[in-house]
Structures are given as C-alpha cells and as structure tokens.
Amino acid sequence: MAVAVTKIPAELKSKFDELESRGKYPKRLSMLVPALHIAQEHYGWISGDAVAAVAEFLGVPENYVKGCASFYSMFFMDKPGKYVIQVCHNATCQLLGAEDIIAHLEEKLGVETGKTTPDGKFTVLAVECLAACGRGPVIQINNREYHENMNIRKVDELLETLK
Amino acid sequence: MAEETRVVMQDIDVPGMASLDVFVKRGGYLALKKALKMTPDEVIAEVKKSGLRGKGGAGFSAGQKWSFIPKTPGPKYLCVNADESEPGTFKDQMILEFVPHRMIEGAVIAGYAFGATHIFIYIRGEFWKEINIVQKAVDEAYAAGYLGKGVCGSDYSVECTVHPGAGAYICGEETSLLESLEGRRGEPKMKPPFPAIRGLYDRPTIINNVETLATVPAIIERGADWHLSLGTKESPGIKMFSVSGHVNKPGVYEIAYGTNQLDFIETLCGGVSGGKLKAIIPGGSSVPVMPAANCDCPLSYEGLHAAGSMLGSAGMIVMNEHTCMVKMLEVISRFYAHESCGKCTVCREGTHWMTMILRRILRGEGKMEDLDTLKEAADGIEMKSFCPLGDAAAWPVQSFLKHFRHEFVDYIEGRKKMLPKYKPVGTIGHEKLPARAY
Description:
The structure holds 2 protein chains of 2 kinds. Chain A is α+β, with helices and mostly antiparallel strands. Chain A has helices at about 10-25, 30-45, 50-60, 60-70, 90-95, 100-110, 150-160, and strands at about 85-90, 120-125, 140, 145. Chain A contains 7 helices and 4 strands; from the N terminus they run ααααβααβββα. The longest helix of chain A has 14 residues, at about 10-25. The termini of chain A are far apart. Chain B starts with 19 loop residues before the first helix and ends in a 26-residue tail after the last helix. The chains are: A alpha+beta, B alpha/beta. At the A-B interface, helix 2, helix 5, helix 6 and strand 2 of A face strand 3, strand 5, strand 9 and helix 13 of B.
C-alpha cells in the first residue's frame, strides 16, 4: 500500500482548505486564481513548488497552472525583491508626474525598472492603472498596500520605512 | 451651478458605513425586505421601468438584461463586476470600501428578481484592502440572514463568494470574467451565446457592474418614477463620475445625468489646475478625447455622443494646456497593448504596432506617413477584434489624431522630442511587451 506523497506543506494546505470551505465554489478549478494568490503569499512568487502545490490541490497538470498564472500580471514568474514597488504610470498618474518618480527610484536604488537590486531588497515595476486616479500618483507595495498622492519627497520617506 | 445628487454615495462619509450595524441603522436592507414582498417579475418590471442603465460602460438597460434569463430550473448566477481597471475610473472602489452592503443589497435584490442561486463578486486583485472589507461584509450579511438559506425569512436562498482577480484589465469584459472565474486564462469568448443563456459553468448568468447594483436598492425603495424624474429622457437617474488629472478637487462625484460638463468641472471639481483647459477624456481612457471647444455639453449618453465622445464608465481625465497629447496617447496606447490578451490577431498585433509608432514619433524618428499608418491600424482594429478592447484601443488613436494632429507634426518635423525615462516593465518573469516594443 503506497503512501500518497503530497507536495503541499501543511501550512499551505490549511489555507487551501480554508479557501475551499469559504469559497463554496461549484467547481474546483474556479479556485485557481485565489489558490495562486495564497501560494504566492507563501513562496513569495509562483515558483516551481508553488505551481506543484496548486496543481496538486486542483488536480490539474502543472503546465496548466503555469500557463494560467503567466496570464495575470500580479503573479510573479520570477523571484522578486523583498519589496516590490509598483508605480502606476498610466494616464492620470503620468499627467501628475509618475514618470519622474520611476526615474527617481531607478536612480536612487540603482536598478532598472523590472529588475531587482543586488541585495534582493527592492524590485521596481511600472504598472498600469491601479484605479486610484483621483489620488495619484499611486504606488502599491507587494500587491497590497496603496500609497497615494505621491511625490519624490514622499517616495524617499516611504523607502525609509521599508527595511 | 452643478450640484451633487447623492444616492449610492448618500451616507458615504458616515463613520462605519462599511459595517452592517451602521448600514442597517441608516435604512440598509429595507429595500431588500420590500423587494422580497414583491414577485420577482414585479422587481424586474420596476427596474426596467426606471430606465436604469448599466454603469460599467456599455449602458445597457439593467432590467432588460435580467429579463433575458430563462425561467428554467437549476443553478443561475449573478457576477458582480468589480474589476475596475479602466484608466481614469475609480468609482467602484469607493463603494467597495465605504458602502459594500449597498452593493450586496442590490445584488441580492437582482438575484431574487431573476432567480440567482449564487452571487460571485469578482474584485480586481490589486484591491486587496477592499477584498477583505467586502468579505467581512458578506460574512456579516450571512450572519444576519441577508445571504444564505431563506433570505430574511423568505423562501429565496442565495450563496455568495468573493473572488479575487489578479491584474488583468480584460477580465472586466464579461466573458473574460467568466473564463477567469472558471479557472482559465481570462480570454473573451464569442457571443452569442450570451451569458444570460450560457454563462458561468454554461448556466444562465448576469454580469452587472458594482455601481449598477448599488443603485438598485434606491429604485426599489423610492420607485421607478423617482428615478425617471432625475437625469434626462435617454439617461435617467444619477451617475458617479470619477474626476482626475488637472483639476483642483479630484474625486468621485454623484450627479444627475445631463449636468453640463464645463459647469461640473468649474463648480464641483474646483476648476482646471495649472492652466487653461485643453481637453477632456470623459468616460475612461477608451473613449474619444474632446478638445476644450467641444466640452460645453451635457454629461449624458446622448449629450456626449452628440459632442463626439461617449459616457463610458464616466472616468473623466482633465488635461490642461501644458499637456503633451502625443505622450498622453502613447501612454493610453501602451495600456491597451499591455492589456491585450493576445487571443485575436488584430488587437494583439495592432495595439503593439500603434504603440511602437507613437514611441518612434516621440523619439523624434517619426515620418509623416506614420500618421496615416496609425489611422489605418486603428481603423483596422475597430469593430474587427474579438471583444471591445480593440475598439477601446482604436478610439483614442483616431480622436487624438483628429483633434491634435498638429502636435504629432511638431514631433515629426523635429520641433519637439521626448526620450523615454525608463523601460516600462510592469511585471516579473513574463514581460508581455516584446523587446522590440521598447
């Protein structure tokens, strides 16, 4: 009698189970995006382990999970820095100076947009509309908290808090 | 003098409105109780009569949409479209954060009207805070009997799930939203069959915008005639406008349809900041741009149409005289190139092509024939793509070229030049923009 080998760590498994009971989804595959969010929170990005865990949880091939995850820009298919600084540079934020903020971040952190600082601390991204145009320019950190009405000075203050 | 008429936004500044207690104290869920005493058909008839139009962009009659659902037994679904991602639009976020119960109440009324067995609230993934707020509101509503088995003691039962997106503008398009919700890449599907016949899991499904549903309780409470008494004949009622850009008081304002656009900007929004008005994009980045000379018009579906634009999702972007329109168009085009899902050729190739031409013009390497190519590319995408994202990419290009051609010529003839400040990379490990587009 073979013992089933699972690729899902216990902590992640309990979060998946919580999603399953709370979500009440009629079909299992519908949990793909929320499960990927949970896996990314656990591993920091959609790593091979994250893909394997989600694939096992949903009972689909790993390639399928990877193919879907890479469609959505919030899922990182590569290891990001500890802090991902997502600067909106779309219509309104651009009007209000977002491009200068990105250029400033590049210069100050010594990193190109889309890349991570050598110490693995910061990744700078230029993202599309975050739907907070009335309070632009907007920066989001790690897909989570918004920082609004940004300017160069406030960016520097924000960087100070990201240790 | 433009004035606010707050309906969805009434009590939005009251502390704690996101909680069930405060919401109920201020008359929340009374409309649901009233609706449950009516027959489902009466609810649909009232909403149809009120002339409520979808507020996510298309402006289709909400009551009529609900009436398309067949009366067959079995599961039926309501999807709340909270995937607000169109540049310039940020109204739904306010509802989600400050009055989530108003949206839930509207959703349960809608569900009762056409017989939904399950409500899915699809919220864009970046709204992490709002997802948690709405989830808490849903939990409260379950505990108080406004969701779940036997809503308010009636024999109507409905489940509710809060579902996160993950950063794809296209998932705001209804068929893509359903694909994403079923656990696939969010790529649109051909219509017909329309979701009302074969939607989520191939079952009858209605997709409504957050603001549309949040307006429903007031219509049930005060009646269709009250709703018809506001706004204009073709655009009855009120609308939340998100105003951003070069204005002194950016924000969300709820006004009756038909309010004069310039009056609205001058009075409620505190006027244009940093110089004279140059142009307005009145309905989110996809609608045609209006030069200042055309901006003196009523804010209604028909008023904006007559003035050469559209109401769309009512995300107004105001630009002052110092705005470079070529740069603005490049930014808007880049958005659609980035968000094109890649399923159909015209949109996948066309959006990138237009963006690259605009970048070349900005760098000072443009030629006069580029303007014709841009126009041809936009015309070649419009109405020929699989879903409206193609149209959304084409309209700005056509209208910017029509109204601000001279600014493009300035770049082409070497009087202006703007070099990029950085490479626009928006995600990690799967750049959607191929290297050639930089």
